[in-house]
Design a protein that fits this description.
Length: 264
C-alpha cells in the first residue's frame, strides 16, 4: 500500500492508539490529535481522517445526555470543518441498532427508529448523519465492545480486577479487540469500500459466564446486576466478505488469557 497521510482523532485513546501504532509501523505519516493538541492541529490536511474520538461511556450518556451530546455529536461536527481530508472514517457503535440480539435485524441497512434509542446510541446515530452529510467520502464503522491493552472499563476488565460485574454473567456480548480494529482500518484505507457503513465486531456472541469459566475466573455481581442481562448478536457478514474475523468468544478468551493487570 502506498503510504498515506492520516489524521487520527482520539489518537491517545484505546482504539486511536492502536490505529496510530499500526499505521506508523507500516510507514505512514500519522498525526495523532487529542484534546491537548487539537487547537494547534486545526487546519491540518491529510489523505484520510480517522475519527476514534467521542464518549464511550454508555452510562454517562444516560446520566447526562447534554454532556454526551457535546462529546459525541458536537465534536464530530467540529472535525468535519476543522480539518482538510480526502476520506473520513468514523468509528461509531453497534448501539445505534434497535434490535441488538437478532442478526437479521441489525444489518447495516436495517432501518433505525432513533426515538427508541438510548441517549448513547441516539447521539452516535446523529453523529453518523453528520458524517454522511458533510464528508465527501465517508465510511462509518460500527464497533462492538472493545478489548485491548489500555482499556479503562468493561466487564472483562472488571473480571481481571476482581470488581463486581454490573451485569448478569448470562449476558451475551459482541466483542472486538484493538488489533482486529487496526487491521480492518488498514484494509479500508488501502482500498475504497463500496459500502458506507460496516459492522466492525466479532462473529457471534460471547457468553460472559463461559468466558469466566474458560479463563478460570470467579465473578461477583454488583447489587441488582442479576437483572441486567444484555443480548448482543450482531450481523457482521459484510465485514467477513473482506477478511476473516475471529468470533467474539475467541477475542474475549484471548484477551483474558493474555492480559496483564499491570499493563491495564
Amino acid at each position: 500500500m502506498t503510504p498515506s497521510s492520516l489524521i487520527v482523532l482520539g489518537g491517545t485513546g484505546l482504539i486511536g492508539s492502536a490505529v496510530c501504532e499500526r499505521f506508523t509501523r507500516d510507514g505512514h505519516a500519522v498525526i495523532s490529535v487529542d484534546s491537548k493538541n487539537y487547537a494547534c492541529c486545526v487546519g491540518t490536511e491529510a489523505d484520510v481522517l480517522i475519527n476514534c474520538n467521542g464518549n464511550s461511556y454508555r452510562y454517562r450518556a444516560g446520566q447526562d445526555p447534554r454532556w454526551d451530546f457535546d462529546a459525541s455529536v458536537l465534536t464530530v461536527e467540529k472535525s468535519l470543518f476543522d480539518f482538510k481530508f480526502g476520506r473520513y472514517i468514523h468509528v461509531s457503535t453497534i448501539d445505534v441498532y434497535n434490535e441488538l440480539g437478532d442478526p437479521a435485524r441489525n444489518q447495516e441497512d436495517t432501518p433505525i427508529e432513533p426515538e427508541r434509542l438510548h441517549p448513547y446510541g441516539f447521539h452516535k446515530w446523529l453523529a453518523e448523519r453528520l458524517v454522511q452529510r458533510f464528508a465527501a467520502q465517508p465510511l462509518i464503522l460500527r464497533v462492538g465492545t472493545v478489548v485491548g491493552t489500555g482499556m479503562k472499563k468493561g466487564p472483562l476488565l472488571d473480571l481481571l480486577l476482581d470488581h463486581p460485574l454490573p451485569m448478569s454473567a448470562e449476558s451475551e456480548l459482541s466483542l472486538i479487540d484493538t488489533a482486529t480494529i487496526a487491521e480492518a482500518v488498514v484494509r479500508f484505507v488501502a482500498t475504497t469500500s463500496a459500502h458506507r457503513t460496516i459492522n466492525l465486531t466479532g462473529t457471534g456472541p460471547a457468553l460472559l459466564r463461559a468466558l469466566c469459566a474458560d479463563a478460570g475466573l470467579k465473578w461477583r455481581l454488583a447489587p441488582g446486576a442479576e437483572q441486567v442481562v444484555y443480548r448482543y448478536n450482531i450481523n457482521n457478514a459484510r465485514l467477513r466478505e473482506l477478511f476473516p474475523v475471529p468470533t467474539s468468544y475467541e477475542m474475549g478468551s484471548r484477551f483474558l488469557a493474555n492480559a496483564s493487570v499491570k499493563e491495564l
